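Re: beginner question about structure tokens

> Can someone show what the tokenized structure looks like for a real chain? I only ever see the sequence side.

Sure, here's an example I had lying around. Input first:
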Amino acid sequence: MALDRFEVRVSIQKVLLGLVLVIVPLSIVGLVLTTRSDSALDASIGSHLKTMAQMYSNNLSHEVSDRVSAVKLIAADPGVVEAVTAANRAYQNQNEAAISDKLDKAEKTWETPQAAPAVKSLLTSKPSETLRHYHEMDQQMLRITVTDERGVPIAATAKPSRYTLTTFGPWQSVYNGGKGAVSISNILFDEPTKAYFVDIGVPVTEAGTGQLAGVALASVNISPLLASFQQDTIGNGWKAYLVNSDGTVVSGPRTDVFARARSDEFAAIGDSLGSLEGRQTGYVTADLQSGRHIVGFSDTGLDKTYKNLAWTVLISQDEHEATAPIRSLSLFAIVMVVLALFMVTLLAVYYALHRKQQFADIEEAASLGQQGLTPPQAV
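And the corresponding structure tokens:
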């Protein structure tokens, strides 16, 4: 049949040219798209880690605010306010020398059996019963103490470590030179309960006048807050860190609060934290000691109110692990691009050698023609 003899003859030069015009641009486009897809994936993962960091940050801020509100409720309790005001009125008919002498004597005997009646009277008083009621309602409050304006406890859930708290740092922060201020201490450790805690202090003010009358201090357990950062991984291999402004880890996987371990992730986001654009982006891709990581971050904003809580939340993930789902596809695309370029190169080399052989045959035939000889025929 006629179709059996149908042939399409195309010169190898045209085939090579067509392949070059098609494969080379497609290969370049493939490489560009592969690179862009990796960058786009990093950006998508970074945005997700930023969102997670913001969720952790918001939750932490709300929890701290709730604990401060609980102590404020104690400081505003009518029975507590009345007890503090009554204690302050007792100083009105005494001179300063007599008051100081009385406080000094009580301080010297506070840790002796001689102070037992005073301690019993303090712990069994009606204001102390009120404090125990708040303690029973919120077990995260390890100890609660309320003092008058001179730092003398007038109610407590447990025996205070000293008779007057005027030299106690957290008390001084709340008293604030007589102005009064809400304060949260650095993180401490309570040996009996094996819990991390902070001392939250709130001014007690006189009803009606609003003048500073005393101080309410509560040692509040924050171990549950820190525990959310101490898991080995969260989600898809993410790691969560709570980091201080000096770069030390407050809480993180297998990291003790008092180890003061330095955070590589925090050092990597330093420049971004210092710029508005960086904070809006909310993530960075950085080379750390453990490899390339994507780090999302969010400032808790607590330091605006509580100077000891200059905390930032970091959510970190290894980039290789993060991009694992599409890494094989990207690798396949790169291999195909390289293979296509190799085939074009191989074809070009073959064409060049073929052309060289053709020129050699033409020159040989021309030489034999000049000599009157007939070129050898293929058998």
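Each token stands for a local structural state, so reading them left to right follows the chain. The chain has two domains: 40-62+228-324, 76-222.
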